Amino acid sequence: MRKLPTLETDRLVLRPFLLSDATVVQRLAGDRAVADTTLTIPHAYVDGLAEQWIVGHEGAWTRHEMAVLAVTEPESGLVGAISLRIELAQQRAELGYWIGVPFWGIGYATEAARAMVAFGFQKLGLHRVYAQHFTRNPSSARVMTKIGMRHEGILREHFFRWGQPEDVAVWGLLRHELP
Ligand SMILES: CC(C)(COP(=O)(O)OP(=O)(O)OC[C@H]1O[C@@H](n2cnc3c(N)ncnc32)[C@H](O)[C@@H]1OP(=O)(O)O)[C@@H](O)C(=O)NCCC(=O)NCCS
Question: Whole-prediction pTM value?
Answer without folding.
Answer: 0.98
